[in-house]
Specification:
By secondary structure, the protein is α+β, with helices and mostly antiparallel strands. The protein has 4 helices and 6 strands, in the order H-H-E-H-H-E-E-E-E-E. The termini are far apart.
Length: 128
């Protein structure tokens, strides 16, 4: 029966493939279902360029409250860019003319002793 009517599996595959991609983004990148859905929609249109030697495992170790020196030690590299008077450290950018990419950045804020501390770690899918 299945050999003769193999084409009946086509609708199942049309549903299963995007579902598997969605699960991949949730499990591998730690995205929320809404972000994973957005990443799935831009699956072949997104393109991200990371800093040299970037590691998602190291980035996942960053926590609010860490000082800037600890961020350097954990990441083992400089960010691509520092914006907003050193308050935003960017570790990923869109590749070429891509509009959608995996955004990785750290928002810092100086404490009362003028030490830059991590205020927020941004790990999201950026889409237009």
């Amino acid at each position: 029966m299945l050999k003769k009517n193999w084409y009946l599996l086509t609708p199942l595959l049309l549903i299963a493939i995007p579902a598997l991609i969605l699960v991949y983004y949730i499990v591998s990148f730690g995205y929320t279902p809404a972000e994973a859905m957005k990443a799935t929609q831009y699956f072949l249109q997104s393109n991200t360029r990371y800093t040299q030697k970037y590691s998602d495992a190291n980035f996942a170790r960053l926590r609010p409250g860490m000082d800037g020196r600890t961020v350097y030690e954990v990441m083992q590299m400089q960010p691509f860019e520092r914006r907003d008077n050193e308050a935003l450290w960017i570790y990923s950018l869109p590749q070429g003319d891509a509009k959608a990419y995996h955004e990785r950045s750290v928002v810092l804020e100086r404490d009362k002793d003028n030490v830059p501390r991590v205020k927020k770690v941004v790990k999201t899918f950026h889409a237009p």
